[in-house]
């Protein structure tokens, strides 16, 4: 399945707990990301259903807000584009849609725009209002 058209302005990384503040140069990978070999990301439209499916039993989440163009340019967590390292955002089909996966880079203060705490009120779909 191809990337969405138009491409999103932002991608989001869902975290079950608060990231360090201030954000470090490199955030630790989740067990899922480490095991899969890439960082799982969601568009604003995908975040509510992903949150309901994987984090339905928690009352708050943290979202890392990341400009798509920053990742697509190959920007690593340190804010540098390393030409020797193959950083890539791939849009890959997963059972319920096409999701962005970040290969060859980490997330951190150099490529994450902000971290936002969201409290659950009803479902995550009712609690989230994100920028596309």
Question: What features would you highlight for this structure?
Answer:
6 strands, 18% helix, globular, three-stranded antiparallel beta sheet, single chain, 132 residues, DUF952-domain-containing protein, alpha+beta, ADP-ribosylation fold
What is the terminal-to-terminal distance? 20 Å
The number of helical runs is 4
The top-level CATH class is Alpha Beta
Rg from C-alpha positions?
14 Å
Which homologous superfamily in CATH is the superfamily? Protein of unknown function DUF952
Strand content of the residues, in percent? 25-35%
CATH topology: ADP-ribosylation fold
- The residue ranges in which pLDDT falls below 50 over 5 or more consecutive positions are none
Number of strands: 6
Query: How many distinct folded domains?
Result: 1
**What does the average pLDDT come to?**
91
Q: Taking strands numbered 1, 2, ... along the chain, how are they ordered across the largest sheet?
A: 1-3-6
Largest sheet: 3 strands, antiparallel
What is the H/E string?
EHEHEHEEEH
Class by alpha and beta content? alpha+beta
What CATH architecture do you see?
Alpha-Beta Barrel
State the share of residues found in helices, binned by percent.
Answer: 10-25%
The global form is globular
Secondary-structure map:
Layout (H helix, E strand, L loop, with lengths): L9 E6 L15 H6 L2 E2 L6 H9 L4 E8 H5 L15 E7 L2 E7 L10 E6 L4 H4 L5
Antiparallel strand pairs: 1-3, 2-5, 3-6, 4-5
InterPro entries: DUF952 (IPR009297)
Pfam family, one: DUF952
Organism: Clathrospora elynae
């Amino acid at each position: 399945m191809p990337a969405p058209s138009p491409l999103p302005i932002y991608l989001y990384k869902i975290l079950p707990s608060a990231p360090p503040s201030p954000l470090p140069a490199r955030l630790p990978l989740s067990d899922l990301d480490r095991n899969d070999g890439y960082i799982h990301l969601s568009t604003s439209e995908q975040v509510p259903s992903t949150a309901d499916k994987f984090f339905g039993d928690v009352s708050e989440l943290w979202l890392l807000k990341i400009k798509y163009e920053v990742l697509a340019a190959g920007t690593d967590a340190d804010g540098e584009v390393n030409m020797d390292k193959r950083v890539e955002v791939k849009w890959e089909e997963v059972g319920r849609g096409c999701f962005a996966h970040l290969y060859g880079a980490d997330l951190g203060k150099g490529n994450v725009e902000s971290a936002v705490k969201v409290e659950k009120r009803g479902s995550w779909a009712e609690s989230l209002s994100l920028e596309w």
